[in-house]
Amino acid sequence: MQQSRRQFLKAGALGVAAASSLTSFRTVHAAENNVLKIGLVGCGGRGRGAAMDALTADPNARLVAIGDAFKERADNVARAFKGDQGVGNRIDVTPETTFDGFDAYKKVIDACDVVLLCETPHFRPRSLRYAVEQGKHIFCEKPVAVDAPGIRSVLESAKIAQEKKLQLVSGLCWRYDHNVKEVMKRVQDGAIGDVLAVRETYLVGKLWTQARREGDTEMMFQLRNWYNFTWLSGDFNVEQHIHSLDKAMWVFGDKPPVAAYGVGGRMARTEQPAYGDIYDSMGVVYEYADGRTIYAFARQQDQCFNDVDDYFIGTKGQATVLRGVINGEPVKKVESNMYVQEHQALFDAIHSGGKTYINNGEYMATSTMLAILGRMVCYSGKRLTWDEAINSEQALVPTGYEWDAKPPTLPDENGRYKVEIPGMGPVYHQVVR
Length: 433
Fold this sequence. Notes:
Blueprint: H1 5-20, E1 36-41, H2 45-57, E2 61-68, H3 71-82, E3 98-100, H4 104-111, E4 114-117, H5 124-133, E5 137-140, H6 148-164, E6 168-170, H7 178-188, E7 195-204, H8 218-224, H9 230-233, H10 236-239, H11 242-251, E8 259-265, E9 281-287, E10 293-300, E11 307-314, E12 317-320, E13 325-326, E14 329-330, H12 338-351, H13 361-380, E15 384-385, H14 386-390
């Protein structure tokens, strides 16, 4: 049986000291002709988008390897890229560099200079660890983990990347958007005084599901339908709402709260087993020791009021970040493509020859942990401290990484999955699976 993620993370933690003690690192630099070989891990919609954004960001970048758990998805993406009239001449992917299976990430990383980690969130801690061990520069999509052991692994990997001077850029893309950066700069320069409270909203409709395919094992079905299972996505509060929570952390200097409590449940996401075990609504209050507060509301229910924005309340006024309004006055907007700009920042840093260094590892881990904390308090119905949450030993892991392994949640006789009921189970942060 293949190594479980719990075993992997434990082994990775033990290996940090050894990796950090090396005196000579293999760090990838651009070749003399400035060509960078790009590898893509994860061939879903975000992975395909990230690869296109990377190729757009640097005309000398070439896609040389791709990998996905499912062979047909990797093959289809390879064909699609080769047939693209805009970038097809920079696709060097061959059948020999198109990989599938649970170990595809290693083969992609071995073949490239820069890896795009866009696989299902559950797998990102192990992919990130392997990438930094192999001395590769990294673009790492959000969220970076689904549980606290994964977060601790990511923080350790980020430290190794820093010691090796590997560029590490996060997929928390609003940090690279010109207009959002301008609003944040003005707020942090005092435009609304001291920020006392933040209200985050991510109120949208339901997202996608994948039906069970004939012949699929339970592991195959859940991986195809990964968004709808907590162990794979972290729940929607982690996978989607993290963008909003990250801006809240940003304005508070990336300092975590001391505790949180919340309410949440599943009211509209009920009519089919493909909805897995995730919630469809959460509301969380994050408390800081000095009285500052983050109020976070997330919902995925159709035919309801929608709103996605960030509301900052200060001692001298208010700011609405995505709308770009400060104290009632709009901030002039410029053309901005944050998805391309984050890759441009990564490639520019690589081409700088060490003059520029980027490592987004700490904030991408802390913001992900904020979202995980929100899920934990909603699932459990408890008030939890930051320290309790980040030191939790709860690891959302299957019995192994192979197609016949058992996921941590299994269907009942009616094909439905258990959904956490607040107050009705063991204290969530004490559960060890």
